Amino acid sequence: MAAYPALYELTSKISSRNLDRVRKLKSAMTRLTARVQKVC
Q: How far apart (Å, rounded) are the C-alpha atoms in residues 16 and 6?
């Protein structure tokens, strides 16, 4: 849910702050995916 507003904001205004926010969200999602795959 948090990714959609971050991506929308990035598309409306590209800035280092928005890029950093999207990068952090992607990292968190990647970690979560890895944890889920370990369980399965």
A: 12
End-to-end CA distance of the chain: 23
In the chain, what's the furthest Cα-to-Cα distance? 38
Q: What is the pLDDT along the chain (40 residues), one digit of tens a residue?
A: 888 999 899 899 999 999 999 999 999 999 999 999 999 8
Q: Give alpha helix (H) positions in the chain.
A: 3-12, 16-39
Rounded to two decimals, what is the model's pTM?
0.75
Distance CA 40, CA 38 (A): 6
